[in-house]
Amino acid sequence: MKQSIFLLAFVFAAAWTARADDVYQAERSRWLRLAEESKPELIHSSHHPVRVVKAVEDKGAYQGWRFETDKEMTPERLATTNFRQLRRVTLDFGDHLTGYLSLSLRSLESMMDAPTRLKLFLGEVPAEMNTPLDPWADNRLARSWMQDEVVTLTLSDKAYRLDRRVSGRYLTVELMGSSSTYDFALDSITFVSETSAKPIADDGLLPTCPPIIRDIDRVGKATLRECMQTVYEDGPKRDRRLWTGDMYLESLANRYSFQNHRLTKRCLYLFAGLAREDGILHGNIFEYPTPKPQIINYMVSYNLLYVMSLLEYWRDTKDRETVLDLWPVALRQVEDALRYVRPDGIFDQSRGSSWNFFDWRPGIDVAVCIQALTIDALRGITELGQELGRSEDVKAYPARAKLMTAAARKQMMDKKSGLFMSGPDRQVSVLSQAWMIRAGVLNRKEARRALTAVLEMPESLKPGTPYATHYLIEAMLLAGMTDEAREYLTDYWGGMVQRGADTFFEAYDPTNDNLSPYNFSPVNSYCHAWSCTPIYFIHKYPEVFQR
Ligand code: RAM
Asked: Would the CB of 239 count as within 6 Å of ligand 1?
């Protein structure tokens, strides 16, 4: 008895201390309620296959595979064809969709006297559906991200809905087992798609806009539409979660397209409501069954982009109430970043365990990038503080930014070439220059010189994702390299369009089709939020991209 009272007291005390240490204790549940209240309605629409296709291995096609129309079969004919004999078919829905798949088995003159087992495989791009998946190597992401499902249907003439939300354009159905006397056809193949992005009537482009830019804008919007669910997802096939870095870019593209600022508000509140007890944010969040953070991802780089997202949300909405409400969260992230900054003004990554993500390019050194982003966030939060009437909270930051700027120039920049060199091996990457330009550490002339040189250097590390490329384009525009920015954007994102992209890919390198952060390109996401940002550039700078 005595022992259990003691235990109870201990548990109570522990819980109390935990709560007392929770810096957002008073706000957490309200923040999560506000997030819930800003949850958008999903808009549903039904789709049916537009054609039956055949896979063709073709060295000239993206990743070596393409689909061509099957001349002998159509979706209509499929509905009366005996699938017991056909056994396998690939269908094309004509567009990238996210949602739920259903179908039924239609009896053709005989009765279903045994269950029917099918394999359904939904994919985003042709190669994904034509590359053997097994054996699945240990160093890859989970095998179960692949959307191949074995299902057993026990009733004929009744719609079967696949439980799992899927995302893609192509569907292969394969017969795995059925009664040898049961003749049936695949019928009512339907994809009910969902998104929270309301259709936009006008593409908002000038009549002078070149066709390739129109295409890039259209594919960018399709990408964002697919990722705009009840949060800004990163990829609707994979990873289906909210990441700060992706949210930041999606919210910029949202400004020039769907303009759903309530969704941004929801995401900002979700991050805040699920922050650690010491006030630091988690890099990503799962929404279902109830919102939860993935606690392994402590990312100062992404936390600083939360600050920048709040600034952009302010610019979009002037919603003082929300921004002031989340102001302590923004300040806390900046304070945490400053914990890494040595007295000499250098961000020292060894002072903590942050994963400072900037690109998936193998071997990228991010010391320069995180230095630059911290400077940028100091400027961003100072601007926001001043606009909110919170100058007092940010009064120390301009001097910190100045110190970090001087330190970057002194310790990270090579005087002769004018290039930033990152880490102990003095790595020269495009991204280091891009982030320093964004942070305003280089003037226009220096910026132009650095970018021109680094892009020409064969040995410099180039961006490996559209995420990283976004910051390169931004830097080019800041450096006044408008022709170069237009050309790069057109080549890079236009390259994906020319390779058949319905939506923009998570990882893309025009020189390496099979580039994959996960050592296996089929598990890449081919509709990835962070890749939709040409929308932002095309509409923000019409004089550069639309004339
Ligand atoms: C991947 C996803 C996501 C990104 C993180 C850092 O898992 O592509 O979009 O933000 O990495």
From this structure: yes
Tokens of 204: 């908002």
Q: Which residues pair with 173 in a beta bridge?
A: 89, 120
Q: Which are the contacts of 402, defined by CB distance < 8 A and separation ≥ 6? A: none
- d(CA 295, ligand 1 centre) in Å: 15
Ligand 1 pocket residue status of 246, Cβ below 6 Å:
yes
Q: State in words which class domain 43-195 has.
A: mainly beta
Q: What is the pLDDT along the chain (547 residues), one digit of tens a residue?
A: 445 554 455 444 444 444 559 999 999 999 999 999 999 999 999 999 999 999 999 999 999 999 999 999 999 999 999 999 999 999 999 999 999 999 999 999 889 999 999 999 999 999 999 999 999 999 999 999 999 999 999 999 999 999 999 999 999 999 999 999 999 999 999 999 999 999 999 999 999 999 999 999 999 999 999 999 999 999 999 999 999 999 999 999 999 999 999 999 999 999 999 999 999 999 999 999 999 999 999 999 999 999 999 999 999 999 999 999 999 999 999 999 999 999 999 999 999 999 999 999 999 999 999 999 999 999 999 999 999 999 999 999 999 999 999 999 999 999 999 999 999 999 999 999 999 999 999 999 999 999 999 999 999 999 999 999 999 999 999 999 999 999 999 999 999 999 999 999 999 999 999 999 999 999 999 999 999 999 999 999 999 999 9
Contact 295, 57 (CB under 8 A): no
For ligand 1, pick from 232, 234, 357 the residue to mutate: most ligand atoms within 8 Å of CB: 234
User: Ligand 1 centre from 237 Cα, in Å?
Assistant: 13
User: Structural domain boundaries of the chain?
Assistant: 2-42+198-545, 43-195
| Phi-psi category of residue 480: left, alpha or beta, with phi > 0 → left and psi -120 to 50 → alpha | left
* Ligand 1 lined by 357 (C-beta under 6 Å): yes
Cβ atoms within 10 Å of 69's Cβ, excluding its own: 13
Regarding pTM above 0.70, the answer is: yes
Q: 133 and 172 in contact (C-beta within 8 Å)?
A: no
**Atom 7 in ligand 1: residue holding the nearest Cα:** 239
Question: What fold does the segment set 2-42+198-545 form as a domain?
Answer: Glycosyltransferase (1.50.10)
- Chain-centroid distance of CA 354 in Å reads 20
- What is the best residue among 226, 240, 242, 246 to mutate for testing ligand 1's pocket, by most ligand atoms within 8 Å of CB? 246
Phi, psi angles (nearest 5°) of residue 46: -95, 140
